[in-house]
Specification:
CATH topology of the largest domain in chain B: Rossmann fold
Helix content of chain B: 40-55%
Distance between the termini of chain B: 85 Å
Radius of gyration of chain A: 21 Å
Number of domains of chain B: 2
CATH class of the largest domain in chain B: Alpha Beta
Order of helices and strands of chain A: HHHHEEHHHHHHH
Largest sheet of chain B: 6 strands, mixed
Oligomer: heterodimer
Number of helices of chain A: 11
CATH architecture of the largest domain in chain B: 3-Layer(aba) Sandwich
Structural class of chain B: alpha/beta
Number of strands of chain B: 12
Largest sheet of chain A: 2 strands, antiparallel
Strand content of chain B: 5-15%
Chain lengths: 305, 576
């Protein structure tokens, strides 16, 4: 039939347009989440230089805390939010106070601390698996309404994720730039030896940094659980993205971690135009590999003397 | 019975896998979070070759080895250029990406379901189709792999690996191309892991991605740590305990899944508690030897009284003229951000003389050393040694030009014996080449004997002969400084840059080192540039010195004349 291809082709083009818009919107949501994940580990690593691998466990524990508290006696999910943040802060600070501090005193190398962290995280996830099984758990009561702007659709959870992520990043940057403690944290990050000499209490500052980094990751975990579900290994991918963002952005620059996380999220979503969805980590890894080979100091990092 | 043999085969296969990671983690000291992938490469290559092409298992094993070697080198080349923590990042990424590939590239790996029906290995019509028949094959493979690793780590090659682990910069300053060593070890470690992987594939005749997941990579790390890093028998112990013991758990009541989860908890806790209470593992690195090595005293030359300093041969140029300029530095500059650390500095060193470089703290003396030796890139200026331009050369290449340096913070290789500290510094050792190690072992042994003789001579010269078998880290600061001088002598370089050789020492040790340096310059015909804060030392050693302040060379002359200048004295003692 003559001309029969016309509308069909048009339809395809229209479909493609809608798809691209939707991928951009999804990308922006994921990107905001990765940006937040990036700064949570970034503030810890930049300051302490501890390769805090158990960060993924903090995420999972926070997620489960949110689910459990909310499900308990039909509490509002607001309680779940505070439970997630509280559990994350407690666990993160606990790991620093009882594990890393001990290793620090013993003069452990970065590799030793990393391995201890790896062990703790591995055991922790297995314990979660034992306690909650591998079946995913939903956060009850969080609004599931779907909103739209034009052709793009997103849920309340998505919108919350974007708003809360950027608010948290903004607050963190403001805290680091303006407050006395924030300035101290930046001083320790650039030179731990010097900071010690001017009389900063390193242990207390590290604890503060772990509280901030873990608490913000707890926020991220709540957002993730509200959007998706909680399961024992839920922290692995966000953690992978967070440390990839830190090295991609350049270790010294916290805004760089956020920017790099944002790039990773956007790339992951737009990558679906050409690659199947399972290749998330491959895209992130490829970006990191190429950037580090060309610019070892990361996107915003500066070359060390 | 079959069951026990089954477990034994698994222990042997894992021992090989763990040994291959021990080579990387224990000896070179870098963490690989993706080691299971290398065994996966071996397993999949072997499976695909045997299933689709029907070739003999030996072809599959060799192909897997080669492919994993290439992948290991490719992964290591860019990532080892950056600092060690990046390697964790890269190898985690490598692990995750490779796992995704195994799951999703169904055309090659057949995805989650894996590849079944891999034929049992056959050799001369004999089929290794039961655990009992497979055991000798697994044992033979393990012995071969262990023998290769044994040869590598107990050789000049292995000595360099340990030196890289202890202090990579110091190792580069001794003329070792550390990047090359790391890439080689990553390639070989990957290759040996692939052998273990293909053995696994041929033994259980079925492979799927779960056998090569990040959990398995962590499991291998736990076994290395438990057995003891850099201990040759550690991997066997680690594998025997962690593969063998959980098999016992199998008889516990409960579902298989429950036992698996318990196992994960168990591994994680082992790793954590080992790091807290016994990071050196069940068998520590030096468990196999007594605390002191047996020193081969028969190699000592008796009656060698002139402090052994005649090891360095005077160059013909030095004999011709005393004023020959060995090292010339012209207009060297370097700034860090806004700070001009070195500003248009020019110095020359005359042959056989000790020249001083003095000035207040932070005036750029050590920066000049770092610029000359290639640890920093200069913004401008030239450096010539024997008239040959060397600026911009990699640190490890300068040894060949006859230039070596010492460090303000000493940087001995602490977990190595004093003797090994000196031995590793000898230039052009054929035993550092893998091919020579395996194909001309006699030549390597002969050379090694000669190097032992020389090294003991240097140790005698600095007076540390009785400490030769001690770990360098167990020595006092003064002794470590002496060991560092012996190590520097072993490079056989004619130009030595000494960075505060007497700092933080008691008077007696200072005297000893002054005498030693004077001897090295006089009898050893070395040209020396000396950074020193102790003015007594400067006056005692140096005829002429350069005076630096705020990155600039302000004056040149006799030390006492320099210090008599009120202006310079003011700068030096910082009276603002």
């Amino acid at each position: 039939m003559p001309g029969g291809n016309g509308p069909c082709f048009k339809e395809k083009e229209e479909l493609m347009r809608v798809l691209i818009i939707q991928l951009f919107v999804n990308g922006f949501i994921t990107a905001s989440f990765y940006a937040l994940a990036g700064v949570t580990w970034g503030v810890i690593y930049r300051t302490t230089h501890i390769f805090h691998f158990a960060h993924h466990l903090v995420f999972a524990v926070a997620g489960y805390a949110a689910v459990m508290i909310t499900a308990q006696s039909q509490l509002n999910y607001f309680f779940g939010f505070f439970a997630a943040v509280g559990a994350a802060v407690l666990l993160g600070c606990g790991i620093d106070a009882f594990l890393y501090r001990r290793l620090r005193r013993a003069g452990a190398t970065q590799a030793t601390t990393f391995l201890a962290s790896l062990g703790f995280g591995t055991a922790g996830v297995a314990i979660l698996l034992l306690a909650f099984t591998s079946s995913p758990q939903r956060l009850v009561g969080f609004p599931t309404k779907v909103l739209s702007i034009g052709d793009a659709f997103f849920s309340v959870a998505d919108l919350t994720m974007v708003i809360v992520s950027w608010t948290m990043i903004g607050l963190l940057l403001l805290f680091l730039a303006k407050s006395r403690y924030g300035k101290a944290i930046r001083a320790v990050g650039s030179n731990a030896e010097m900071a010690k000499n001017v009389g900063l209490n390193i242990d207390r500052l590290y604890l503060l940094v772990f509280a901030i980094g873990s608490g913000l990751f707890g926020v991220a975990a709540f957002l993730f659980t509200a959007k998706n579900v909680a399961y024992p290994t839920m922290g692995i991918l966000p953690f992978f993205m967070s440390f990839t963002a830190v090295f991609l952005g350049g270790v010294p620059s916290i805004p760089g971690h956020a920017l790099a996380g944002f790039i990773l999220g956007l790339a992951e979503s737009l990558g679906m135009l050409v690659l199947p969805g399972e290749y998330k980590t491959m895209i992130a890894f490829a970006i990191l590999f190429v950037v580090i080979v060309i610019r070892p100091e990361g996107l915003i990092g500066f070359r060390r003397g | 019975m079959d069951y026990i043999v089954n477990v034994l085969v698994f222990i042997l296969i894992y021992a090989v896998l763990v040994q291959s990671l021990n080579l990387i983690m224990g000896y070179v000291g870098v963490i690989s979070m993706g080691h299971a992938v290398f065994s996966g490469i071996g397993a999949y290559t072997a499976a695909l070759i045997s299933v689709h092409l029907g070739y003999n298992f030996l072809v599959g094993m060799v192909a897997g080895f080669l492919l994993a070697t290439i992948v290991g080198a490719l992964l290591a080349m860019p990532s080892l250029r950056v600092r060690d923590e990046y390697l964790i990042v890269f190898t985690v990424g490598f692990q995750m990406v490779a796992y995704e590939f195994m799951l999703t590239a169904r055309g090659i790996t057949e995805g989650q379901g894996g590849i079944p029906d891999i034929p049992f290995p056959k050799l001369f019509g004999f089929e290794f189709n039961t655990p009992f028949k497979f055991l000798p094959l697994a044992l033979f493979t393990a012995i071969i792999c262990f023998a290769i690793v044994w040869r590598l780590v107990r050789s000049p090659f292995g000595r360099v690996l340990k030196a890289i682990r202890e202090d990579e910069s110091a190792c580069r300053a001794l003329g070792k191309n550390t990047l090359k060593f790391k890439v080689l070890v990553f390639a070989l470690g990957g290759g040996i892991a692939a052998i273990a992987g293909s053995s696994l594939a041929y033994f259980i005749t079925f492979i799927s991605p779960v056998s090569f997941s990040v959990e398995i990579s962590i499991f291998i790390i736990v076994m290395v740590i438990l057995g003891g890093e850099a201990n040759f028998w550690g991997p066997l112990v680690g594998a025997a305990i962690l593969v063998g013991l959980p098999e016992v758990l199998r008889f516990l009541p409960g579902t298989a899944g429950f036992v698996d989860v318990l196992r994960e908890i168990f591994y994680g806790l082992i790793l954590m508690f080992m790091m807290i209470f016994r990071p050196q593992g069940i068998l520590p690195e030096y468990a196999a030897q007594p605390k002191k090595y047996q020193i081969p005293t028969d190699l000592l030359v008796e009656g060698d009284t002139n402090d052994g300093a005649d090891e360095g041969k005077p160059s013909s140029a030095e004999e011709k003229s005393v004023t020959y300029q060995v090292l010339e530095i012209k207009g060297l500059s370097k700034s860090f951000g806004g700070l001009q650390a070195v500003n248009d500095a020019s110095l020359t060193l005359s042959a056989g003389k000790i020249t001083g470089l003095i000035g207040p703290n932070g005036c750029g003396k050590t920066t000049i050393f770092n610029l000359i030796t290639g640890f920093l890139d200069a913004d401008g200026g030239k450096v010539y040694i024997h008239g040959k331009e060397i600026i911009g050369k990699e640190p490890y290449k300068l040894i060949r030009d006859g230039l070596a340096r010492s460090w303000q913070d000493i940087r001995t290789f602490k977990d190595m014996t004093v003797l090994d500290n000196v031995l590793v510094a000898h230039p052009k050792q054929s035993g550092e080449k893998i091919l020579s190690l395996f194909f001309s072992p006699w030549g390597v042994a002969r050379e090694e004997r000669e190097n032992y003789r020389k090294a003991l001579g240097y140790l005698k010269m600095v007076g540390l002969l009785d400490k030769a078998g001690h770990l360098a880290g167990s020595l006092s600061t003064a002794e470590q400084k002496l060991a560092a001088i012996a190590r520097l002598m072993a490079t056989e370089c004619s130009v030595l840059l000494l960075d505060e050789p007497t700092a933080a020492l008691d008077l007696e040790s200072v005297e000893r080192i002054i005498k030693l340096i004077r001897g090295i310059a006089k009898q050893g015909h070395k040209t020396i540039l000396l950074i020193e804060h102790n003015l007594d030392v400067v006056r005692g050693l140096v005829e002429e010195a350069y005076f630096m302040s705020e990155g600039k060379v302000l004056a040149y002359g006799e030390p006492s004349a320099l210090m008599a200048n009120p202006k310079l004295a003011e700068v030096y003692f910082g009276i603002d």
